[in-house]
Amino acid sequence: MLPSFVFSLALWATPISGTAHSAGIPIPRSGLHTRLLHGGHNLQSSYDYVIVGAGTSGLTVADRLSEDGKSTVLVIENGQVVDSPRISQVFSGVAAMGPTWSYQINSVPQPNMNNRSATVVVGKLVGGSSAINAMMTIRGTSDDYDRWGSFFGKDSSWSWEGLLPYFKKKAVAFSPPGDAVAKSVNITWDTSYWGNSSRVHTSWPRFQWPALEAQVEAFRDIPGVEFPPDSGSGKAGVYWFPTFMDPDKVERSYARTGHFEGLNGTNFDVLTESKVTNILLNDGVATGVSFEQKTRNSTTIVTVKANKEVIIAAGAIHSPQLLQQSGIGPSALLEAAGIDTVVDLPGVGQNFQDHPMVFTSVVLQNFSVHPNPTDMYSNQNFSAWAQELWRANKTGPYSLGVGNAAAWLGMPVIAPDRFEEIASKLEKLDYATSLPNGTHPTVLAGYKAQMKNMAAAIRSPNTAFYNHVLTGAASSGTIVDLHPLSRGTVNINTTDPFKSEPVVDYRALTNPVDLDIMVEIVRFTKRYYFETRLRDLGPRQLQPPDSVNEPEDLKGFLSQSVNPSYFHPVGTCAMMPRELGGVVDEQLKVYGVKRLRVVDASIMPVLVGANTCQTTYAIAEKAADLIKADA
Ligand SMILES: Cc1cc2nc3c(=O)[nH]c(=O)nc-3n(C[C@H](O)[C@H](O)[C@H](O)COP(=O)(O)OP(=O)(O)OC[C@H]3O[C@@H](n4cnc5c(N)ncnc54)[C@H](O)[C@@H]3O)c2cc1C
Ligand SMILES: *[C@@H]1O[C@H](CO)[C@@H](O)[C@H](O)[C@H]1NC(C)=O
Ligand SMILES: *[C@@H]1O[C@H](CO)[C@@H](O)[C@H](O)[C@H]1NC(C)=O
Ligand SMILES: *[C@@H]1O[C@H](CO)[C@@H](O)[C@H](O)[C@H]1NC(C)=O
Ligand SMILES: *[C@@H]1O[C@H](CO)[C@@H](O)[C@H](O)[C@H]1NC(C)=O
Ligand SMILES: *[C@@H]1O[C@H](CO)[C@@H](O)[C@H](O)[C@H]1NC(C)=O
Ligand SMILES: *[C@@H]1O[C@H](CO)[C@@H](O)[C@H](O)[C@H]1NC(C)=O
Ligand SMILES: *[C@@H]1O[C@H](CO)[C@@H](O)[C@H](O)[C@H]1NC(C)=O
Ligand SMILES: *[C@@H]1O[C@H](CO)[C@@H](O)[C@H](O)[C@H]1NC(C)=O
Ligand SMILES: *[C@@H]1O[C@H](CO)[C@@H](O)[C@H](O)[C@H]1NC(C)=O
Ligand SMILES: *[C@@H]1O[C@H](CO)[C@@H](O)[C@H](O)[C@H]1NC(C)=O
């Protein structure tokens, strides 16, 4: 079951699949310089660093650790190298997200969502989720990163100031938009928040829908809305943001192109189609991993040693699974699965978060701006023109991803009369009732610390809760809750811990304040259309139905329609103090084990109010420096 916003995007993604010229040129495997080990040939028995997962963070860390030309690095990946125009294609943003190159795991039924189940989608190929994501290049606000450090004390380097150098100098290279397209819709940006030295690129489509300028400007009619100078400024507001795209090739730029392809080191090996099932532990020290390698007729178990460190980068769904399979996790769970506990670490697989989203439809009946996205499939002249531009020069609408303008707003802006009441309600909750029965006291303590912080966040104009990506079309679409308060779990399946996928439970809406916040999110969307200059265009609310306005009715609508995932799973190996249910410390080292770190999206203790890819690159860049400092 895919969320409805994917359908709406897929709809206007159709034209391109019929055009031979629309796709980028697939990169032949001979273009990969770094050693790709097929079927394990040339695998050495030991490496300085063994990294699990050739995704966004794994390839970033591998590139940085091997760049001295001396340290030997092996990355083990369950998926394959995939050369496909659907991956390189920027248009529509989500052409590659189907089941072919991803894990798609159905969650357990969600009682607060009318027992619906939801599907978690994460990449399973070289490049990981960065190979299939929607390429939106977004950073959280300064509050989001300062919050992470606050759990350790005020001197933590996990802060906006501490991470900004990684965003700027390392994570991603920024190219400004072309003059003509920037002028056409008043795109604003500020290069002082960016660098240009990474091989992961972010840049701008060569076209924008003309109605976007008015859709941005309409937010000026709402008191309190800020217009920060750049998407990277760490401020909430309405702004333009770029696309993870190579500006010259006009193709997806991701961990594979930025941190694997074209590198020449013989000290950086990637082994594909190999699933790591255990971390080898010897007296509390990680010494290597064992993995399943599928040959034509059989599956063999192979082990490889790490001279310096084992680094887990399997993503927020599989990193906790691997720790639990290796005996690092909540002891009761491990016992139920028949796994000996090596380190009783109650937080592993807890604190699971993703951004809930809801599809809304407010239609502007008298909207008459052309071209707009519907012209891609309803106006043959326009689509013929678009295809000609793309074929000739890779310009025009086919260079567009999901979008480049959006609102990211705090509760005091979207609910000025209600945010204080909502914050106090959160402060008064009995937090234990929102977590599973039997939750370990340290995990509960961590949740309390987070909720105290979230109450402050609800009162802060610089923590974004509301996200609405503008489309240049006549109707609203997906609206996202950027700071959910409910926490789920990702645990091994105790009846079949090694063969089965982990059991994913979003525990959606188990904190009742999530619904209060989402009610305000839906109401604000209506306000944007009915109480700004857009009201002159005849807004009509279709979804939720026009008659549904009272909070209790909106809650009913939400429990029927919320999807708990916007593809941003995090939090399952949280960087928090151990007494707050943490899994890794500020050095990203797993508590209770030596020479073992986690470096992926699972370490975020609390979601950022942003799509998670850019932050994952920054975490990985910082992780590489921490690891080098210890070498
Ligand atoms: C459909 C979709 C759309 C998204 N859109 C955006 C967006 O527009 N903007 C944005 O900022 N973010 C977006 N995201 C989120 C972002 O891409 C992720 O947060 C980020 O890429 C996560 O990086 P990671 O390193 O934690 O994990 P991943 O990049 O997922 O890498 C994990 C890797 O580990 C491998 N692996 C797992 N288990 C094992 C094992 N046992 N052995 C060996 N290998 C293993 C996996 O195959 C995978 O390659 C999207 C994600 C998806 C799925
Ligand atoms: C959800 O399922 C449970 C267990 O089967 C059942 O008790 C409950 O009534 C169901 N709730 C809804 C809203 O269908
Ligand atoms: C363009 O955007 C800037 C920055 O938000 C704003 O100050 C200016 O008024 C906008 N110009 C137009 C013509 O909309
Ligand atoms: C990269 O950034 C540096 C420092 O801001 C600047 O001097 C240089 O011109 C930039 N290079 C490119 C290619 O944009
Ligand atoms: C790798 O080698 C090729 C061919 O010698 C060269 O063109 C390329 O720049 C090198 N890449 C890197 C990252 O050093
Ligand atoms: C693999 O299985 C096939 C079909 O069962 C068989 O013909 C072949 O001999 C097997 N190969 C090896 C190497 O065992
Ligand atoms: C399509 O273009 C042709 C030629 O430019 C023009 O005559 C026709 O009116 C256009 N049709 C539409 C629907 O725009
Ligand atoms: C492609 O770019 C060239 C050079 O700018 C221009 O002359 C030509 O008209 C463009 N082609 C199309 C179809 O826009
Ligand atoms: C959890 O505990 C509460 C209160 O004791 C009880 O009402 C509820 O049924 C329990 N839930 C589960 C799943 O055991
Ligand atoms: C756990 O694994 C068993 C055996 O493979 C399977 O039948 C069951 O559906 C799995 N449970 C969940 C919740 O995925
Ligand atoms: C839409 O435009 C028509 C014609 O200009 C006008 O008569 C009508 O009142 C408008 N409808 C709305 C809902 O604004």
From TrEMBL:
<keyword id="KW-0732">Signal</keyword>
<dbReference type="InterPro" id="IPR012132">
    <property type="entry name" value="GMC_OxRdtase"/>
</dbReference>
<dbReference type="Pfam" id="PF00732">
    <property type="entry name" value="GMC_oxred_N"/>
</dbReference>
<dbReference type="InterPro" id="IPR007867">
    <property type="entry name" value="GMC_OxRtase_C"/>
</dbReference>
<feature type="binding site">
    <location>
        <begin position="56"/>
        <end position="57"/>
    </location>
    <ligand>
        <name>FAD</name>
    </ligand>
</feature>
<feature type="domain" description="Glucose-methanol-choline oxidoreductase N-terminal">
    <location>
        <begin position="315"/>
        <end position="329"/>
    </location>
</feature>
<dbReference type="Pfam" id="PF05199">
    <property type="entry name" value="GMC_oxred_C"/>
</dbReference>
<keyword id="KW-0274">FAD</keyword>
<feature type="signal peptide">
    <location>
        <begin position="1"/>
        <end position="18"/>
    </location>
</feature>
<dbReference type="GO" id="GO:0044550">
    <property type="term" value="P:secondary metabolite biosynthetic process"/>
</dbReference>
<keyword id="KW-0285">Flavoprotein</keyword>
<dbReference type="InterPro" id="IPR036188">
    <property type="entry name" value="FAD/NAD-bd_sf"/>
</dbReference>
<protein>
    <recommendedName>
        <fullName>Glucose-methanol-choline oxidoreductase N-terminal domain-containing protein</fullName>
    </recommendedName>
</protein>
<dbReference type="GO" id="GO:0016614">
    <property type="term" value="F:oxidoreductase activity, acting on CH-OH group of donors"/>
</dbReference>
<dbReference type="InterPro" id="IPR000172">
    <property type="entry name" value="GMC_OxRdtase_N"/>
</dbReference>
<dbReference type="GO" id="GO:0050660">
    <property type="term" value="F:flavin adenine dinucleotide binding"/>
</dbReference>
<feature type="binding site">
    <location>
        <position position="276"/>
    </location>
    <ligand>
        <name>FAD</name>
    </ligand>
</feature>
<feature type="binding site">
    <location>
        <position position="566"/>
    </location>
    <ligand>
        <name>substrate</name>
    </ligand>
</feature>
<comment type="similarity">
    <text>Belongs to the GMC oxidoreductase family.</text>
</comment>
